[in-house]
Design brief:
The complex is a heterodimer of chains A (166) and B (399). With 166 residues, chain A is α+β, with helices and mostly antiparallel strands. In chain A, a hairpin with a 5-residue loop joins β3 and β4. The longest helix of chain A has 31 residues. The termini of chain A are far apart. Chain B is mostly helical. Chain B folds into 2 domains: 248 residues, Up-down Bundle (Cytochrome Bc1 Complex, Chain C); 102 residues, no CATH class. Chain B contains 17 helices and 4 strands. In chain B, the strands form 2 sheets. A two-stranded antiparallel sheet of chain B has the order 1-2. A two-stranded antiparallel sheet of chain B has the order 3-4. In chain B, α3 packs antiparallel against α5. In chain B, 27% of the residues are buried. Classes of the chains: A alpha+beta (166), B mainly alpha (399). Chains A and B meet through α2 of A and α5 of B.
């Protein structure tokens, strides 16, 4: 068949066939499929991210609590301690040898375990990694803790003992 | 360093990495194996997609189910509240639940279509019997997943659906009057175990939760693995007439059919997304053990046909429990359908070949008719009441 004998339609078809198998079409399709996949992945990823990060109990609300009454302080002996809940966090109230009350945030500054008071050694101790704090000031004195325990104010009112934070 | 050397180096690195991976993963051998797999293309090959679509729904259910569990709290006091919180407080929580509920329904539909298409193509015949039976188990598991998941939101419809469903399991073949004293019906024992007692309690929710999102998915995954392995071994069935007339061609499974499957999945996902967003799945009032059943209450569409059949049954026929007759009729018809490889084992010269097809048509039409009838009769039209009373009337007439 000579070229000039080809009809316009045949030429058009030939062009079409060229296109169907052409590298341009291949690249175009690859970009299209890749782009669509990326768009879907991004959309679904965003939905899952927002879904998982919402609806969580708002601890900021609990953080807003500035004052709490600690029960049973009157019956505490000297050189003893009492745990209490302050907002969402644990607190520790220590009655020292002189009968003075001290309150601290009981979350160890090292890796977040809850600390305890050891009356025999008169120290605040964290059982997880052996952190030691001074029960008078909350200062970190031995072991891995990088910072002192946060200290709270103890206020004795008519109806009992309160712990306050700024 | 010139750009060319850089490119050459990165190519070499890529090749080394490929070789190192291949030494361990045997990718070349696997792709060599995959390249031999073909899929027949003919006028009925559209049905082949429904297996893949069912699989896709299972994947969606796994993903959305795992995500729902990150907010769901099973328990009488917490189930409903946690779903409410999911709907009102969690971003995209409504959509996540809607996806899961809708995909569950569409999965049942897709599995049913897949089952009937396999049935009519006679894909159950030698050597594919194991594929068929594992598929039948997967259909049963799909519906059981639907039933157990239904209770978890603990709204009124969840409560009654579970109550009725387990009561059906307790149906004795003989009415209480003639039932031997002290003999426990196995159905009652099973229902008591599922409920954790005689009533729907906290234990029921915990058990259904465990079954729904631990036990059944594991079992499902195992049976699905077998099902897919069997399909790899035997390939797709070509209907006998098409096979004989040679009116088909074969395309490579990879990448050609995989792309087509992926495209079907994309369409499925988009359809699901539109349905789930336009018609968000509802939540009824919280389950209340002393509240009466709401009027017009009915099960999901895939339970509507047996639901309607039960309405036709007389309370009893002699000593035989009427409800049991309904359960036996529907169960028997289903067992006959799934046992088809036993009674229509051969393609050629099989005298039951035609009967099998007629029976399939009968089962399919029966399902559709009773489902439509069930919806139409929801408001207890006088015609329906008369219809439902027909068999009881005959039974009374005999007395």
């Amino acid at each position: 068949m000579k070229i000039e004998e080809k009809t316009e339609l045949e030429l058009e078809e030939e062009k079409h066939e060229d296109f169907v198998d052409s590298p341009e079409r291949r690249n175009f399709m690859a970009a299209l499929i890749g782009g669509a996949t990326a768009a879907y992945a991004a959309g679904i990823g965003f939905v899952i991210y927002r879904y998982l990060s919402s609806g969580i109990t708002d601890s900021a609300q609990l953080e807003a609590i500035k004052e709490i009454k600690v029960d049973g302080v009157a019956t505490m002996k000297d050189n003893s301690y009492k745990m209490f809940k302050f907002g969402s966090k644990p607190g520790i109230l220590i009655k020292d040898n002189k009968g003075e009350l001290k309150a601290f945030n009981a979350v160890c500054s090292h890796l977040g375990c809850t600390v305890s008071y050891q009356p025999d050694k008169s120290r605040i101790f964290c059982a997880c990694h052996g952190g030691v704090y001074d029960p008078e000031t909350g200062k970190n004195i031995a072991g891995p803790p990088p910072e002192p325990l946060k200290r709270y104010q103890v206020v004795t009112k008519e109806d009992g003992v309160y712990v306050e934070r700024a | 360093m010139s750009l060319e050397t850089k490119e050459k180096q990165s190519n070499e690195l890529w090749q080394t990495l490929q070789q190192e991976l291949d030494d361990r993963l045997k990718i070349k051998e696997l792709s060599e194996l995959a390249s031999h797999k073909t899929v027949p293309i003919h006028k009925h090959s559209v049905w082949y997609y429904f297996g893949g679509i069912s699989l896709f729904f299972f994947v969606i259910q796994m993903v959305t189910g795992m995500l729902l569990l990150m907010h769901y709290e099973p328990g009488v006091a917490t189930s409903y509240a946690s779903v409410q919180k999911l709907l009102n407080k969690v971003e995209f929580g409504q959509i996540m639940r809607s996806f899961h509920s809708w995909a569950a329904n569409l999965m049942v539909a897709s599995v049913l279509i897949h089952m009937f298409s396999a049935y009519f193509m006679k894909a159950y015949q030698k050597p594919r019997e194991i594929t068929w039976f594992s598929g039948a188990i997967l259909l049963f598991l799909t519906i059981t997943l639907g039933f157990t998941g239904y209770l978890l939101p603990w709204d009124d419809i969840a409560y009654f659906a579970t109550k009725v469903g387990l009561d059906i399991a307790e149906t004795k073949p003989i009415i209480d009057q003639y039932w031997p004293k002290g003999v426990e019906w196995p159905g009652t024992i099973a229902a008591d175990i599922l409920r954790g007692g005689a009533d729907l309690t906290n234990l029921t929710i915990q058990r259904f939760a465990s079954i729904h999102y631990v036990i059944l998915p594991w079992v499902f995954a195992g049976v699905l693995g077998l099902h897919i392995l069997m399909i790899q071994l035997h390939g797709n069935t070509i209907p006998q007439k098409i096979e004989e007339s040679k009116q088909y061609r074969r395309i490579p499974f990879f990448p050609n059919f995989v792309y087509e499957d992926l495209f079907a999945w994309l369409l499925t996902f988009n359809v699901l997304a539109i349905i789930a967003i336009v018609w968000p799945w509802g939540l009824g009032p919280e389950a209340d053990p002393i509240a009466p059943a709401p009027p017009g209450i009915h099960p999901e569409w895939y339970f509507m046909a047996p639901f309607e059949i039960l309405k036709w049954m007389p309370p009893s026929v002699g000593p035989i429990n009427g409800e049991f007759i309904g359960v036996a009729l529907f169960g028997g018809a289903s067992v006959l359908l799934f046992a088809v490889p036993f009674w229509d084992p051969k393609t050629k010269a099989g005298k039951f070949g035609k009967i099998a097809t007629y029976y399939g048509v009968f089962a399919l039409i029966g399902l559709i008719v009773f489902t439509i009838l069930a919806y139409w009769c929801l408001d207890n039209k006088p015609v329906c009441v008369a219809m439902h009373d027909f068999f009881p009337w005959i039974v009374r007439g005999f007395k």
